[in-house]
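Entry 12.
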Amino acid sequence: DVTNPRQCQKVTKLRRSCIRLHCSSPIHLKASARSLYQPTTSMALPVMEEGKLLVDALNTVKIQVQQMKRYLELDQLMDALKSASLMLAELRTSSLSPKQYYELYMAVFDALRHLSNYLYDAHTQSRHHLADLYELVQYAGNIIPRLYLMITVGAVYMSVPDAPVKEIMKDMMEMSRGVLHPMRGLFLRHYLSGQTRDHLPVGSDDGPGGNLQDSTTFVLTNFVEMNKLWVRLQHQGHSRDREKRELERRELRILVGTNLVRLSQLDGVDLEMYQGAILPSILEQVVSCKDVIAQEYLMEVVIQVFTDEFHLHSLGPFLTATAQLHPKVNIKAIVIALIDRLAAYAAREAENEDPEETKKQEEAAARRLAEKVKTQKVKSRENGSSGATLAPEADTWSTPQPPIGPPTESVTESAVAATASPSETESAGALKKFRGVPENVQLFEVFWQQVVELIRARPDLSIQDITALFVSLTNLSLSCYPDRLEYVDQILSYAGEKIREYTDSPDLHTAQTSSNLAALLVAPINSYQSVLTLLAIPNYAPLLTTQLFSTRRSIAHSIVSSVLKNETIIETPEDVDGVLELCHVLIKDQSDGHSAAPNGVAVNGISGSGLNGSQGNPRKLGPYSVEREEMAEEQGWVARMVHLFRSESLDVQFELLQMARRHFDAGGERMRFTFPALITSSIKLCRRYKNREHLETDWETKVSTILKFCRQLIFILANQVDAPTIALRLFLLAAQISDECGFEDLTYDLYVQAFSVYEDNISESRAQLQAITLVIGALEGAKVFSVDNYDTLITKAALHASKLLKKSHQSTAVGFASHLWWQEKAHLETEAELEEGDGKPAAKTEEKDDETVKAFPHQDSKRVLECLQRSLRTAGSAIEEIVTVQLYCDALDQYLYYLDHGAPAVAPKFVNSLVELIAASIDNIASPDVHPSQRAPPGLIEGVQTPEMISRHFYNTLYYIHRRKNANLTDPRWEGVDIVGATLKMGITR
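Predicted 3D structure (tokens):
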């Protein structure tokens, strides 16, 4: 460091004379400056720990600060300056680490604020003139105290009116060159930058007060000098401490970057000044320093601190400088940071746009791109070439277009294209902007050329870095140019080429590369409202097929989620085929899926045929149950997507379902979850045809075809994937729709199939009860059958009901089967149709002379009574009396139903007898010793059946009879019901 004050005085002699010309009335100091600022001989410090040295330095600063404050309060400025000089001398140390030196610096910085406030007040009160003090403090014996005091006084001097700010800035800048030690110099210049930031001139005058140009020169010069000191810091000390010095340098980087923050905060800095003076100076220093740490940090700071508008118009110079950085610099991170910032800017600007307009642009772009693909394929066929060889020649618009010329030429062209001077902009008038990007800025083209050149010029770039660049380019394209699908396709095509180049490289299968490729493929899904846009990107599906199983599965999840979230309607068979092909990893078996579980059962549902036939150890198959749940959830999403396959044309709608079936056929065990959605959609289509029977001439043929289609799918469910319960329900649902359409033979066959499923595949007792109840319920509403067919089916149903394993289940099922012999007319049909001449319901409405006699409404009260009586006999044979009483109560409900609906054979006497039987037995079920309170019910009702519940059931039934008898209705059948004894016993009064 320069320690001779005379040398510094010679350097600044001219400037001091200029300063004196602007001084109004110099004040004569009472004490001699030389007596107060005698040079002190530096003593060699003893070796001690850094922590102890810091404590001693802080104690010294604390003592000198107290003395300085006391002298300032007594208006003894010379003594105060001497204390300040002693305090600042502690900053001469070289034994502290950057963190410790910063702590010492902050303590000194806080103390100098008190001195700054005093100097300003003293100047305004005419006690001391800052011009004289500025010259006086330069007589300090050591350069560190001298320069800190000079900056302190100079900064205060800059804040007063009519100060020669321009000369002061130049003088302080040149004097600061005297400190050559990297760490001390960095903190000194940081102090200079911080003290002067609020007083930098921003005007345009050329007077002594300075202007904006002087301020930018001052800050840029300070930045350049600080960066040089920062780079020099790596050469301090021994080579074995290189890692420690690099860590210290990273701790000090914010001191250098603060200068760029100052530049960005200067008022009046416009695009012209940024392009002409600020950015070139910064980039020149960054490139010339040839230091990896400095270049990476400073380029990052430039991206962060300056505005998006500046970056948009200076892409050329910035990217040119990026290509000239040190080979070890992480250029990928720099380019990605700039791309991501501009993409985020475009996304923010897009929030102010109309979503409907954005959607229209996407749809128009998709149609335009699809038309291009179609045109190219037509040309290819005319030339006799196959569609698989289109990419290199025919589809040139979708392949990457790397620059042909030398890198310098393309960079220059890019810079010209991306940089427009303000004067040109003004002469051209107000430029149109889309998402904040002016039309004259070819943003994507510049980045694309630079990235391609970078990849070609840097063979050492890993596939991880290359794919990360592709992700950022895709985000930029989607944010700034959402209607230019060819940009995204161009990136995906180039990505596919690079993947093929790295096929044998292990880096291609690393977690980072897979993550980057997944982000690349998911970006269009998240950006576009409709996943159908993906089908207009020719290189999307080919790139997807080259990915790992986990990546394909993740992308398929995103596609299905987007369809469901946005409720995307898929209207054409081609679109259904395209979407399901993108999701094929969820639909079909994959050869590269997870490893197989024991006995051929594949984990994650990869093999569908091994589920039912596996006889392995259940312990070994433990993880499979978890994967089965995941597969069920996935297939549930796919099944929900089926209901969005919609078309206004009924014929096209059936084509959509057939296309989906072709994909689902290869799903194996997945068909358990996807086929029901197809079947229910087909049944909806049948109803649509039925509702348009007056407009569709051949609707019967089409509906019959659809029902046969459903029958095939349900048969597969019942036999191939072992889902008998859902298959039986769907057979009954299809039979009901067929019955509505009047197809007797097809309806009969569907019921037969339902019985076959029941007989062959359902063996558990309660499941049989539930299944036969469903069959009875469906048959009870059948209208299309002839007498013979209907009688065959209901007899079979009653037979199955009577053959159930448990007596309680037999009783319940036979009671329900009684409804098969007492069909009710629809509510819309008149009572006249239900009655014959004497006003009584007809037993059967049959026409003997007609071959097409229909059984509906089939009513035979004698067979009803037979079923009810058999149900009671079966209930009476139950071992537990609580089960018998409960079944009696259920049978009583059935008797009351038929009594209310006028079944002749069901007379009031049967109701009376059953009520007396229940009343006599109700008390016997209350004993907890004989009948436990916790037991499963014998019938269809799930849960726990207790004596209290049975008693409440009987009470409610009696109360219903009681109210019905007391109603103002003249029904002789209800008059014959006598429940007086039972009502008294149960506590029911009038």
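Annotation: The longest helix spans residues 355-382. Residues 1-47, 384-429, 595-624, 827-850 have pLDDT under 50 and may be disordered.
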